[in-house]
UniProtKB/TrEMBL annotation:
Keywords from the UniProt entry: Membrane, Transmembrane, Transmembrane helix
Pfam families: ABC2_membrane_4
Keyword Lipoprotein: no
PANTHER family (UniProt xref): INTEGRAL MEMBRANE PROTEIN-RELATED, MEMBRANE PROTEIN
Keyword hit for Transmembrane: yes
Transmembrane intervals: 12-35, 55-75, 96-122, 142-166, 220-243
Name of the molecule in the record: Uncharacterized protein
Domain of life: Bacteria
Amino acid sequence: MTNLLRSQIYKLFHNTIFWAGAGLTICSVLFYAVFESMKAETVANGMPLFQYYSILFQNYSTGLPVLIFCVVFASDDFMSGAVHYYISKGISRTQYYLSKMTTCAFAATLYVVIAGISGTIISQILWHNLDGLLQINTLQLLFFFFSQIILHASYASFLVFTCFLFRSSVISSVVNMFLLIFGFYIVHRIEDAIWNSYVISMYWPVAMFQRVQVMTVAEWFSVVAAIFVIYGVLLTCIGIIIMKKRDIK
């Protein structure tokens, strides 16, 4: 398992799609930052903490790069026949699935780090507010970034699951792109129609990228922990079962 994971990490850092996603993340953060800087209240008052948070993790600044990389990375071995090669060499299906899921979750974590670093540098250039950021509650900032890591890793786990379910990069891309754009609205409409008294949209990781900064620590812990259990644990177990039951061609 260690050697397999090491080889997957090696492939990650030598993957052009990953680095293209990193560039897309930086460009997206820059775009959102420039857009915020054009607002009248931002020009008058500088960059408040809420806007600093909001420019970092939009659906298309980190969610889209994570989607593109995970779908390509997880589906590529099915398209090339490498899955059959790995299994024929004695690697268990559980180990193979976990290696892909762990690598994609690690890539998602790196995108969070890239967004955080680039967002801090860009906000300092545009608003010179680094001193203000350093004066905020350090624990609050750590909670925010840790929650984003959990959310993005959970989202990566969901993407890997869909790739192993469909075994096609095209189908996985279409389905996940649709969910990235419309997933929150679909779930929200279901809430309105059926479970109006219970909010289920908060358990969709992408929907929480932008909402977590307005949550209390208690709300953060319960929701993010639930998302991790649902996507990081339960969905991974289901994915492993599917991997074991289906033929490898």
